[in-house]
Amino acid sequence: MFLGVNIDHVATLRNARGGAEPDPIHAAQICEECGVSSITTHLREDRRHIKDKDVRSLVKILKTNLNLEMAVTDEMQKIALELKPHSVCLVPEKREEVTTEGGLDVKGQLSKITKFVSPLVDAGILVSLFIDPTEEQVIASSKTGAQFIELHTGHYSLVYGTLEEDEAFNHLKDSAELAQNLGLRVNAGHGLNYHNVSRMHEIDGLYELNIGHSIISKAVFTGLDSAVNEMMRLVK
Ligand code: PXP
Questions:
Q1: Where do the domains of the chain lie?
Q2: Mind listing the pLDDT tens digit for each residue in 58-80?
Q3: 2-235: CATH homologous superfamily?
Q4: H helices within 52-162, ranges in order?
Q5: Tell me: the pLDDT tens digits for 77-114?
Q6: Which one of 9, 42, 152, 171 is the catalytic residue?
Q7: 102 — alpha (psi -120 to 50), left (phi > 0) or beta?
Q8: What is the pTM for the complete model shown?
Q9: Ligand 1 binding pocket, CB closer than 6 Å
Q10: Is 42 a catalytic residue?
């Protein structure tokens, strides 16, 4: 199983001050040096974290795979066809949400999504659909021409450690098995952390996990002592 790291949270911090630090491109390079299989970034319609210039820099600089998360819009399709990332992950997007809240309704928009996927696949881009772990969304996804799904682990993460955990986990496991039987490759992500990630090993054939918030959160504390010590030296 591979790890893709989502660097959007670094851009959120940078944008809070409107300057250049911390630089999400530098963060991507550190992840790359660690040997991650991909860098994930979500170019949102409102550009609240990652900006167009960041994606352009990542396309130029990265040696590892770039996974571009994006909404199903003409603007995003045009950008993907121009920049040709290794893969795109199609996600639903609502302006008012804090983060991607639910999966893409592939079943309800089957013809729109199938039409959207086709030019991307023709351009050699791998296409993944971020969906809730339900039988109907998996079956619909298998009809679109996309090669991957990414199972939304948000609910599993939320109920991890409660009586609802097993049920949420079984939805992920059953969906992954069905998807693979239908010829799809399966990624997973959202809300995974240093505790709940271990059960992902119980799902056969999972290809890649996309994780952002817990990694960047941990990095704040694993790096804080050296950052303070360096400044103390300068201040003393
Ligand atoms: N996968 C998708 C499709 C996402 O939208 C996100 C959040 O941007 C993630 C994975 C990573 O989620 P988290 O930041 O909670 O690890």
A1: 2-235
A2: 999 999 999 999 999 999 999 99
A3: Aldolase class I (3.20.20.70)
A4: 52-61, 74-83, 110-122, 135-141, 154-159
A5: 999 999 999 999 999 987 666 666 789 999 999 999 99
A6: 42
A7: beta
A8: 0.95
A9: 6, 8, 42, 69, 89, 91, 99-100, 130, 150, 189-192, 210-214
A10: yes
